[in-house]
Amino acid sequence: QPASIRVVISADATGPTIDRNIFGQFAENLGTGIYGGVWVGEGSPIPNVRGLRTDVVTALKALRVPSVRWPGGCFADEYHWRDGVGPRQKRAVTVNGSWGNALEKNDFGTDEFFDFVQQIGSDAYISVNMGSGSVKEAADWMAYMTADPGTTAGAERATNGHREPYRVKFLGIGNESWSCGGAYRSGYYVDEMKRYARFVRNLNLQQQGTDNPAGGSIAGSSPMQRIAVGPGSPGTDYTEAVMRAWKEHDWSWSIEGLSMHNYTWVSWPPSYASTGFGEREYAALIKDTLKMEDMIRIHSAVMDKYDPDKKVPLVIDEWGVWLAKLPGSRDGFLHQQNSIRDAIIASINLNMFTRHADRVRMTAIAQMVNVLQAMILTDGPKMVLTPTYHLFKMYVPFQNATRLPITFDAGTYRSGDISVPRIDVIAARSADGKLWIALTNVDANKPAEINAQIQGIRARTASGTVLTADRVDTVNTFEKPNSVVPRPITARVTEGRLSLTLPPKSVTVLSIAQ
Ligand code: AHR
Fold this sequence. Notes:
Elements: E1 5-10, E2 24-26, E3 48-49, E4 52-53, H1 54-61, E5 67-70, E6 94-96, E7 102-104, H2 110-120, E8 123-128, H3 135-146, H4 152-159, E9 168-173, H5 186-199, E10 225-228, H6 237-247, E11 257-264, H7 279-289, H8 291-306, E12 314-321, H9 340-355, E13 360-366, E14 376-379, E15 382-385, H10 387-394, E16 402-403, E17 406-408, E18 412-415, E19 418-421, E20 423-429, E21 435-441, E22 448-455, E23 461-468, E24 487-494, E25 497-502, E26 506-513
Parallel strand pairs: 1-22, 2-5, 2-13, 5-8, 8-9, 9-10, 10-11, 11-12, 12-13
Antiparallel strand pairs: 1-17, 3-4, 6-7, 14-15, 16-20, 18-19, 20-21, 21-26, 22-25, 23-24, 23-26, 24-25
Helix pairs in contact: 3-4, 6-8, 7-9, 9-10
The chain binds alpha-L-arabinofuranose.
């Protein structure tokens, strides 16, 4: 009988807010992420509303996705928004040079994107083209999206069926500008970033005065958060350059977020399989994902130097497991399956984000549908929800909840020469006053006995759901969609102490009633 793991939660204490934007998502015009995955067109036999597939929209609504980043990614820096507005039969047909040279018919453009975010109840995070575009092109796009219908740009939008200005809550100024976004030196990027931050204006007057975490009252204030390109490795060149510039910003421009990208792949190019793998590959990816902690610490330390009050959030707007493409899938489509391993990795990352809630206030998992660590896989009319989808749904109560102080002995999970923490736990109080605990047992083989002391309240019952599977590589398929789905679980509660057994390779989310 293994010794039980002691967890102590200070339920009557307070802590930072877990910004709901850390549960954001990324949807790029890449492979079947948009075409087939989200967009099927109005004439499709697949049930849809204005071309957007109903099954996918319904599933995503349940996740309360706070924001969707679009159109890229690398694609953003070769995207010309004019190709994707107006009557569809007249739109430009182009080639997606970033991703498999696929034909880009531009059926899914700006108006379709906003219809999508509105249908799922989310907010828009637009990445403008800084690589092959210009400040004017980006400013014109913002005008198309946000200007009053009395202006020429707004009138064009109204002619295309959308009189009211759209709400652009987040603006990405470039993407990976140190690589696919133009391979810019950091100093060059910063000079360009200032021009975009100054001139790419959100003209939606209704949006003026909305929350702006970094916004001084006058200095560069903007109704949207402008997010600058930051690091994609432990190197701090971009972080230093952008944050130094931010510290010196004047009334004419500012930024309200620094992007960071960090994938779990062990080594580049990604070679780990998404199906049919064993415990060695399971443990290797768990170990690799923990590098996220180092990345956050390294870049937060630089940010703290220039911004000790933590006004500028670290926006991890690309993260997730990047594996070898599924055999038979097209090159450049980044199509992979999604197993219980991915769900566990998602829980480890989300837990890290909550522990850095004062600096990490927004993220976007890559990507939403059919690409990399997806929530949903589709094939024609078929759709399946992945383990990562279920994990995100289980974590919905943590959106905007107050993180609570917690201590626990993580222990160690060993597999061959790999050692990683065995247990991970977070606790939070949601806005309605309920207490929530998420517990992850990384161990592929051994259950974990948990003995939790909940200080400050008299816990009476604890119940929730557990996500687990028989094997580390278990996936949901179109034929067997329910291999990894949340099942009910109840903890024993005696005299305010909660005890339960976590199955091997599992994530459990409990709500505690007092
Ligand atoms: O998510 C896939 C790609 O990964 C993105 O387009 C790019 O920004 C990153 O390198």
